[in-house]
Structure prediction request, 308 residues.
Amino acid sequence: MGKGECILRELLYDEASYAIGVDIGGTKVFIAIADDEGNIILKEKVKSSPDVAEIIRAIDDCIRKLNIDCGKIKGIGVGVPGMVNSKEGIVIDSPSLKWGNLRLKDIFLEHYKTAIELKNDVNLALIGERCYGGNDSDNMFYIAIGTGVGSAIIADGKIIEGFGYLAGEIGYFLGKEDMMPGKVNGFLEFGTFERKISGSALTLEGLKFGYSPQELFLQYRNHNPKVKPVIEEFALQLAIAIANGVSLLNPERVVIGGGVAESLDCIIDKIREHVANFTPVATRIELSKLGGEAGALGGIACFLKHQN
Prediction:
């Protein structure tokens, strides 16, 4: 069984055998396959591509590795970074993949002939966090920091997608310093907030010192004075966004996930301290236990019956 208090027992269909979760990121694609009891039987990470055919080939390779009959796959949950119309199965805007108005669900349906759930990657990660990560709160603000930045909101047990399915696009948050010529938010581009705290932003900062994002945090742990201002500014900007979200949403928990979150244990206390100073609205701030795997596990959970 997967970890967490949300115990996954059986697929929505009695005859189902497998469910697949696919988290398509800007730099990598994470694929997971589960059996009919929710046990994860395969995890695979491959390089991402804007070419949908390449992504499908990677999924097919995973299916072949397990010698699975495609007729026994009852569903594939797919997460994509950016703006996604989950009802129509359309990727409206995905800057990291340079996709716009792409009918991705139809492409998957044509190839796999099975049920497809297409969602924003962070909404899918929130589902994974609830079912596999032990964070089963009905009021949660989930922030994913990977190549870009996004968030998902669950209020009174319901995921909030918003009019036009665009709720949670915190990558477009603005600060006063952003109100200057040349700093604008537009489709197919990273937002102003993403340019400050995403993995892509950290990569650019790291180039100044010859470090990767992971190495920046390692150097911070080792008290390297050169990287200290970079990491502390990162923590401050993230804390401001969290505090604003907490004041607006009053969540029981804030969970920080995504690939970058795997390096944030050295500053999580600082983030908590900032947030407590920035808003009187109390909340719990935690790092995801699933890291970059939450999205794919959420894709699986879309096709699993669960009971708390």
